[in-house]
Amino acid sequence: MPVNALPHGLCRDCLTPAQTASRRCRSCGSPRMLAHAELENLFLAHIDCDAFYAAVEKRDNPELRDRPVIIGGGKRGVVSTACYIARINGVRSAMPMFKALEACPEAVVIKPDMEKYVRVGRQVRSMMEALTPMVEPLSIDEAFLDLSGTEKLHGAPPAMVLARFARQVEEEVGITVSVGLSYCKFLAKVASDLDKPRGFSVIGKSEAFSFLSRQPVTLIWGVGKAFTATLARDGLHTIGQLQTMERNDLMRRYGTMGDRLYHLSRGMDERSVKPRSEAKSVSSETTFNVDLSRAEDLVPVLRALSERVSARLKKADIAGRTIVLKLKTTDFRIRTRNRQLGDPTRLADRIFHTGLDLLKREIDGTRFRLLGIGVSDLTDAAKADPPDLVDRLSHKRALAEGAMDSLREKFGKQAVETGYTFGHGKAGQPQRDGDD
């Protein structure tokens, strides 16, 4: 066994390697033991700060330590974050504030201080980046890490490095984190939620299939309330039921989402950790050769730009919640209009139709020299475009767009067009364009 290898376990408090599985550390007596047969061979982690906003406020005001704390707006607002004491009393994120206070009337309500939270989040992020350059942020307080190949750098395998990191965050930042360690992103994320707060859970390859078989379908990314109802109507409630189904059958029923169900239900996730800077938006714009004012001239270009933005979001495996329309008039005055969606999107169809609604309000005879469309409030693509119970045709449009993407990937970008751009030739394409 290499000098720095772990004998399948360690103490998360004193970091002493454990020769055999035991309920308490033989060195310090702590019950926070971590043991797993595959511990030495797993390197992909998901780290999530525990009740982040509330934890920062409790750190800065020790008098709040043993009190329920809710971060959110006034009586008409919603809960941004609730500490675990408040959660025990039934408070949940996104709950209307009046309901949260009915469930926990003794809670201390604090308005969010985003500037402070961003500052603390960046501090934790920089500590992650000291472990490995392979850090993929998901939000202000969570990220994926790929620690493969870092054993020589740290003199210890990933599990020990992550345990050190968790202790360092508590000591230096004053908040706690939960760690999930596995062989793929999906199960690392699942593992980090298993034992909050101050958790460290491991899911290895040997147990993945059986572990997943006992879980509800809602564990799979993208299976929200609407899609859960769809699966329930088809008699599908557990991941174990999905494991018995063929891929073609799932795709025939649910399109691209069926492919996700097939793979993730079996613990198959080949996505790699993709380090990226915290891009604020993805956008595309074009400056016209001649100023345009008519809808029939502007709409085809808007569609083409929307498809370009969508392709970049899909390639980066991200999505965004806010659609931003940009126009520049002939006298160089810039107009920006935006609309926040109920759920993040990466679909050209949703980007275009939201942008089109914004554009129609601006078509009043004004001549424009530039048109742009973008998406901001970026997040992981797994949260994007859940089935819409109100717009029943949205699912069919999403399937059609997936088919168009496949054809373009195989035969080129011009292999298939929508009616918005077909027949418009160069007039329906960006003329002098730029991406951001």
TrEMBL record:
Reaction catalysed by this enzyme: DNA(n) + a 2'-deoxyribonucleoside 5'-triphosphate = DNA(n+1) + diphosphate
Presence of the UniProt keyword Magnesium in the record: yes
Positions annotated as active site in the UniProt record: E142
Site residues by UniProt (Substrate discrimination): Y53
Subcellular location: Cytoplasm
Keyword Cytoplasm annotated: yes
Domain UmuC: 44-224
UniProt keyword terms in alphabetical order: Cytoplasm, DNA damage, DNA repair, DNA replication, DNA-binding, DNA-directed DNA polymerase, Magnesium, Metal-binding, Mutator protein, Nucleotidyltransferase, Transferase
Binding site for Mg(2+): D48, D141
Enzyme type, top EC level: transferase
Main location: cytoplasm
Cofactor binding, per record: Binds 2 magnesium ions per subunit.
EC nos: 2.7.7.7
UniProt-recorded Gene Ontology molecular function terms: damaged DNA binding; DNA-directed DNA polymerase activity; magnesium ion binding
Superkingdom as given in the UniProt entry: Bacteria
A GO BP annotation: DNA repair
Gene Ontology CC entries for this record: cytosol
UniProt record similarity statement: Belongs to the DNA polymerase type-Y family.
Assembly mode: Monomer.
Function (record text): Poorly processive, error-prone DNA polymerase involved in untargeted mutagenesis. Copies undamaged DNA at stalled replication forks, which arise in vivo from mismatched or misaligned primer ends. These misaligned primers can be extended by PolIV. Exhibits no 3'-5' exonuclease (proofreading) activity. May be involved in translesional synthesis, in conjunction with the beta clamp from PolIII.
Protein name: DNA polymerase IV
Organism per entry: Nitratireductor aquibiodomus
